[in-house]
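One example copied in:
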Amino acid sequence: MTPNASAQASPSQTLSRGIRALEILAEAERPLTIAELADAMGVHRSVAYRILRTLEDHSLLVRDDGGRVQPGPGLAVLARGVSRDLQSAALPELTQLANSLSMSAFVAVWDREECVTLVTVDPRHSGAAVVQHPGSRHPISAGAPGIAIQSAFPEHEWQDAAPGIPYRAEAAEARRRGFAVSHDEVIAGVSSIAVPLGVPGGRPAALAVVYIRAAQDPAEVAGTLAEAARRIEAQLG
């Protein structure tokens, strides 16, 4: 590698490591020490420390009194800009769904081989909610949101849009009946119902709920989701 090529590669590597550090912190269940984060990143502690200082300068992470690091308020500022119109349109509907159905309600968007939770609302007065954190990911090939997103495409169009990702038989069934269901696919013991959500000019998405036990008929829940999806789509124009 020439010196110029090396110089060009270094910033990309540093940026990649910084992004990886934020991903690790976002997924961690507790604040991490610098040593723990360095181990998770696979780099020397001094490298991790330099990256963390830069992220800290931009409020993307913070350190507690013990020196442990965790995501910072700067990430919330960045997150507000992601699909801003979709988040604004979806939030009131998600709140209504979560509280009326006593289920966690969320919007998931398609990101290459995964579904990413964009925004979520948990029911206000229920101890049985399943928390679906914004930013959480699971394979597009698993779970009702992924099936619902696939179902928005005829099989031949999906093969062009996502070569190498099989079109599930459940997606064809969801396309016929208008909604997708899944059980034990993403989280053991958890079920999900989802409908496609059209986003003009945006990534294919799904409106979904997750639950452990449901008193309602899945078809009735799906009907409520479909109505909410239509209202969101109308706001997005």
Notes: Residues 1-9 have pLDDT under 50 and may be disordered. DSSP finds nine helices and eight strands in the chain. The CA atoms of residues 160 and 198 lie 19 Å apart.
